[in-house]
Amino acid sequence: MQAGEPERPQDAPIVNIVGELIALGPQRRDLWPLYLRWLNDFRVLAPLGAPLRPLTEEAERAQYEETSSNPQQVWFTIYARATERPLGISGLRDIDPGQRTAEFVIFIGEREQWGKGYGTETARLVLDYGFTALGLHNIMLKAFSFNERGIRAYRRAGFKEMGRRREAHRLAGKPYDVVYMDCLASEFESPVLQHLLR
Predict the structure, then answer these.
(1) Measured in whole angstroms, how far is the alpha carbon of residue 160 from the centre of its chain?
(2) Smallest Cα–Cα separation from 93: which of 128, 126, 118?
(3) Could you tell me the strand order of the sheet in which 160-171 lies?
(4) Which of 6, 15, 100, 121 has the most beta carbons within 10 angstroms of its beta carbon?
C-alpha cells in the first residue's frame, strides 16, 4: 500500500496497477466460473477471432494452468475501480525479451460495460506495464475490421495501424480485414508505473 492510500478491506481483490476507471490484478481461481461464462459468450469471443465453440470447464482450467505458468504470457483481471467488479481479461502474450516485443490482448466480458472507456484505459495500463515494467519496445495487436469500437479504443490508447491483411478473417460468412496495430515505447508516455517505479 502506498502512503496516503486508504486501507483496503480484507476481501478486496489484489491489484497490481490502478488507473482512474479500472484496476488490474492477477487472474484468480475463484473467478473461473465468471471467466467460463465470458468465454462462452460468442459476442465476447467474436472480436478476439477465437473459434466460436463452447468451452468446457476442464478446457478453461487447463488453459488457465498453462497461461499462468508460461513466462511468455502475463494476464490480468480487469476490475471496475469504483465497484471492484471483474469486467474482463487483458495481457501480453508471445513476450520476447530479446527482441523486446509482445502482443496485446483484451476482452471485456461484461457486455453492458462496453463503451465506457474501460478498454482504452486497460490498453494504456497494459502498454505501460509492458514498456515500463518489462522493458519492451514494440507491442502489437491484431484486430478485425468489424470491431470498429475496439480499433477506436486502441488508437486512443496509443496504437497505430501498421497494415492490413485484406479479407483474411470470416465471421458469419462475411470476409473482414485483419488489422495490425502497434505502439513503440518511444511514442508512449507512462501514465502510472514510471512514477511508482522510480
Answers:
(1) 17
(2) 126
(3) 17-18, 22-26, 74-80, 86-96, 101-108, 138-144, 174-184, 160-171
(4) 121
- Among all chains, which residue has been given the C-alpha cell 522493458? 135
Say if residue 87's pLDDT is above 60.
yes
Q: Is the pLDDT of residue 79 over 80?
A: yes
Do 119 and 106 meet the contact criterion of CB atoms below 8 Å apart? Answer: yes
Burial of 20 (0-12, 13-18, 19+ CB in 10 A): exposed
The per-residue pLDDT for 11 is: 73
- Residue 141 CB neighbour total at 10 angstroms: 21
- Are the C-beta atoms of residues 35 and 64 closer than 8 Å to each other? yes
* CATH code of the domain occupying 17-188: 3.40.630.30
Confidence of residue 1 (pLDDT cuts 50, 70, 90): very low
pLDDT at 34 over 90: yes
Cα 128 to Cα 116: distance, rounded to the nearest angstrom: 20
